[in-house]
Write a structure and sequence with these properties.
Elements: H1 13-36, E1 49-58, E2 72-75, E3 81-85, E4 90-94, E5 100-104, E6 115-117, E7 123-127, E8 132-136, E9 142-147, E10 159-165, E11 170-175, E12 180-185, E13 190-195, E14 208-213, E15 219-223, E16 228-233, E17 239-244, E18 246-247, E19 253-254, E20 257-262, E21 268-272, E22 277-281, E23 287-292, E24 304-309, E25 315-319, E26 324-330
Parallel strand pairs: 1-23, 18-19
Antiparallel strand pairs: 1-26, 2-3, 3-4, 4-5, 6-7, 7-8, 8-9, 10-11, 11-12, 12-13, 14-15, 15-16, 16-17, 20-21, 21-22, 22-23, 24-25, 25-26
């Protein structure tokens, strides 16, 4: 792991083709949604509905509290709410009551998409546009940058999310562009290994986006185009094992999964940005329920992306195109 300035290389023809392919995939998924969404009428039993109550929203209509396509959220131990406001290259910090406090990062970030906080309150932010990780104190002081290795064919790294396993001193980085997960030893400041490659089979990924870790150290990665959540197991030398969910528009299926978070019970919450729903699974992948309104109808979010649970098991939902963070209590 180096900690020195890096210069991005010009994008090659092959990289342009990769970008074009990604755009085509996104367009086809969006086009298909127009026809599939009207058919999304799934019957749920009362046990398969988890009513939620909106308790607050973060993001004003003007001024410094205004958000512009936020991409990630987390809550510090003292209750401060950190929002990654990627379109304007900043981390915006709010009090636990939702009052804007301060922001930072614009001098060091380019199109950031993901962030994580370690047990010491240090903030790791994906400097996505520059292909590296930036480290800040919780007060916003820039501490260092972590440069990342290119892909096997010289493809620039595109970090889109990070997760810290504080118990094991491991940093996981989702490299969207190279369809892989980079695993770093934080104590030694060194790369342990890189896992994953492009494909649809076991141990393969296609444009992974979000990542979460449970108390056992099991890693859950949202594999967007393969429409599933992959699981990685450090006790087995970080082997891929079972998947959670598959492609579809029925219960337990995804059309465009985006965010993943784990509550205190170890249950897995997964957002579907196109269908606008959040589903709940057991750790091993069995479907449990879908978030709903008090009248037993499915709750539809506005482009739900990343998810986060605070110490009180309140769920924070990044509604990217609504430019807000919605905070819910779950009544189960």
């Amino acid at each position: 792991m180096s900690i020195s300035p890096s210069i991005r290389k010009p994008i090659s023809t092959n990289q342009n083709r990769t970008f074009f392919y990604k755009e085509i995939i996104c367009f086809l998924l969006f086009f298909s949604t127009v026809f599939l969404l009207p058919k999304y009428s799934v019957a749920f039993t009362s046990k398969e509905l988890s009513p939620i109550k909106l308790v607050a929203t973060i993001g004003g209509k003007e001024g410094k509290s205004r958000l512009r396509q936020p991409s990630s959220v987390l809550v510090a131990d003292d209750g401060r709410i950190f929002v990654l406001d990627g379109a304007v290259n900043r981390v915006a910090v709010f009090s636990k009551t939702g009052k804007f406090l301060y922001n930072f990062g614009s001098a060091h970030l380019d199109r950031p998409l993901g962030m994580a906080m370690d047990p010491n309150g240090l903030l790791y932010v994906t400097d996505t546009g520059n292909g590296r990780i930036q480290l800040f104190s919780s007060s916003g002081k820039h501490l260092k940058q972590i440069n990342l290795p290119e892909g096997k064919k010289g493809t620039p790294t595109e970090p889109v999310d990070v997760a810290v396993d504080g118990k094991r001193s491991i940093l996981y980085i989702v490299d969207n562009n190279n369809h892989r997960i980079l695993i770093y030893n934080l104590k030694k400041n060194s790369l342990i290994k890189s896992i994953g490659k492009m494909g649809m089979g076991e141990g393969e990924l296609r444009w992974p986006f979000s990542i979460a870790i449970n108390k056992k150290g099991v890693v859950f990665v949202v594999d967007v185009v393969n429409t599933t959540v992959r699981t990685i197991h450090p006790e087995n030398n970080w082997a891929f094992k079972y998947d959670v969910g598959k492609w579809g528009i029925q219960k337990g299926e995804f059309f465009r999964p985006k965010g993943v978070a784990i509550n205190s019970k170890g249950e897995l919450f997964v957002s579907d940005s196109y269908l606008g729903v959040v589903q709940i699974f057991e750790e091993k992948g069995r479907f449990l329920s879908v978030l709903s309104n008090s009248d037993k109808t499915i709750h539809y979010f506005t482009t739900p992306a990343r998810l986060f649970f605070d110490q009180h098991d309140r769920l924070y939902v990044v509604e990217m195109f609504a430019n807000r963070i919605a905070i819910f209590e779950i009544n189960r």
